[in-house]
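Dear support,

We are seeing what looks like truncated structure output for some complexes. This example has two components. We would appreciate it if you could run it in full and send us the complete token output so we can diff it against ours.
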Amino acid sequence: ILNVEQSPQSLHVQEGDSTNFTCSFPSSNFYALHWYRWETAKSPEALFVMTLNGDEKKKGRISATLNTKEGYSYLYIKGSQPEDSATYLCAFLIKAAGNKLTFGGGTRVLVKP
Amino acid sequence: EPEVTQTPSHQVTQMGQEVILRCVPISNHLYFYWYRQILGQKVEFLVSFYNNEISEKSEIFDDQFSVERPDGSNFTLKIRSTKLEDSAMYFCASSGQGPSYEQYFGPGTRLTVT
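Here is the complete output from our reference environment:
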């Protein structure tokens, strides 16, 4: 059974502070890791697709790193704003499995003004 | 920007009834998916569909479930005889060619089985 874990489950951050959280996944049969941002009552929004060990990707104040050998990815939010409040999901993809994504439980981030 | 749409946003049905959840994927996408999230649990994969056939399905996707792309634009999930445990948020997604492409998700249909 494939297990993708995210920690912490939730996080309270003061506006302006930076924060980061983790996604851990099996290091074997890795093909890609997806990060999504999900606000309540909206569609999960794709942030990054990461495929190479050592990858670093950035979108505005949000960035992610990938270590496929040890099976983890970090998501960083620099200078958090209230609009960053959302649940951040990671999802692991094995090659040749119909593009099936296996999701972690999410990290719920609440940015307090 | 193109988006995946789903209807209805909320469906209430009685146990044993058939339901059809509808999705309109992004028009030039080739892969289509259904996922679901039972309240308090992780989002879980149900099925992927490519070239008019199922390419992968989970053990949840038993004979009670079926998918169809009836007219080249809609993508549907049918549950033949709903059970209480089918109550969940159902998400449709679509993507371009290849596993390193982003999957674009719809807003979900909340299914409540009573």
